[in-house]
């Protein structure tokens, strides 16, 4: 199978750098004329997939909005993921899983395992049990040709206090922020012999578009060969037209993620909203 890094880079080259979030929260379901049930969330997801296919290369279903309906919600999510993958979209399951090593293996099986009902192309994961807790998950991504997006610099303002905190790391010869530590440790595989020389390695990072990377001690070199999932555009205030100012030399690595600013257009307007987001992004990237 082609590596995740190659699949993602191909999707970004062919279809651009916009990632459409699939976030069927209660307010949006009501606006879309759908019930706040697993079946409503399923119909919502399938309609977003239909609009996204051929317009973008990547979608990101928000697992929480399916999980809230229990087993019926997971069945709905399985259908949405399968439909997206069948349509040729790269699927990032936004599950934000994080636990100790052996338990993480279970999450790896669930989200990355070949033939798993929830099999996706990549999953978001949390490193706050320590970056080494991700080791098994990273090994699974390499083995399965799948991807990970590790929370490094999240878009929510209250996270900066934690992610910019300095840690004492025995092997480091300098103080390191939590964000720097996480990206350095988890991203090491991207330049190791274990992976090929595709544009991206298997470990990407979440770096919010609303974040001051310098404050978090995040330098460009630590993100070398990492895909960057950047939420925060649209509803959270960052503008796609500013992508080059926000990300500088990293801009070509950025997957700009937006949910509410697209989904709020409703079922009749979503295709146009995706086109408008794409046009704004393309103009900013290639001006
Ligand atoms: O991992 C994420 O996608 C994520 C990380 C982060 O730092 N901030 C963030 O907002 N997200 C997710 O991105 C989506 C943002 O939605 P909108 O603000 O509506 O575009 C939600 O599904 C969030 O859970």
From TrEMBL:
Residue ranges of domain Orotidine 5'-phosphate decarboxylase in the record: 17-274
Pfam family, one: OMPdecase
Cited Gene3D superfamilies: Aldolase class I (3.20.20.70)
Catalytic activity from the UniProt record: orotidine 5'-phosphate + H(+) = UMP + CO2
InterPro entries (UniProt xref): Aldolase_TIM, OMPdecase_AS, OMPdecase_type-2, OMPdeCOase_dom, RibuloseP-bd_barrel
Protein name: Orotidine 5'-phosphate decarboxylase
EC number: 4.1.1.23
Entry keyword Lyase: yes
Keyword terms, alphabetized: Decarboxylase, Lyase, Pyrimidine biosynthesis
Class of enzymatic activity (EC top level): lyase
């Amino acid at each position: 199978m082609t590596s995740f890094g190659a699949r993602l880079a191909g999707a970004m080259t062919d279809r651009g750098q916009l990632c459409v979030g699939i976030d069927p929260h209660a307010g949006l379901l009501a606006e879309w004329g759908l019930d706040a049930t697993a079946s409503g969330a399923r119909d919502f997801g399938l309609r977003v997939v239909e609009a996204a296919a051929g317009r973008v290369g990547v979608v990101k279903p928000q697992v929480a909005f399916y999980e809230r309906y229990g087993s019926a919600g997971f069945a709905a999510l399985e259908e949405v993921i399968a439909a997206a993958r069948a349509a040729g979209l790269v699927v990032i399951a936004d599950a934000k899983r994080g636990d100790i090593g052996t338990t993480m293996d279970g999450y790896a099986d669930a989200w990355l395992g070949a033939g798993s009902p929830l099999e996706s192309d990549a999953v978001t994961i949390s490193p706050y049990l320590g970056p080494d807790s991700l080791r098994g998950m990273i090994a699974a991504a390499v083995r399965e040709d799948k991807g990970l997006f590790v929370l490094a610099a999240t878009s929510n303002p209250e996270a900066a206090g934690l992610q910019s905190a300095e840690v004492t790391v025995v092997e480091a010869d300098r103080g390191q922020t939590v964000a720097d530590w996480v990206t350095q440790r988890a991203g090491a595989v991207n330049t190791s012999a274990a992976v090929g020389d595709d544009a991206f390695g298997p470990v990407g990072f979440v770096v919010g578009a609303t974040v001051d990377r310098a404050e978090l001690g995040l330098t460009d070199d630590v993100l070398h060969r990492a895909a960057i999932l950047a939420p925060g555009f649209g509803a959270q205030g960052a503008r796609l037209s500013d992508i080059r100012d926000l990300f500088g030399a990293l801009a070509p690595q950025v997957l700009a993620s937006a949910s509410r600013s697209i989904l709020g257009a409703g079922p009749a307007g979503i295709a146009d909203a995706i086109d408008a987001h794409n046009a704004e992004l393309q103009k900013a990237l290639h001006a």
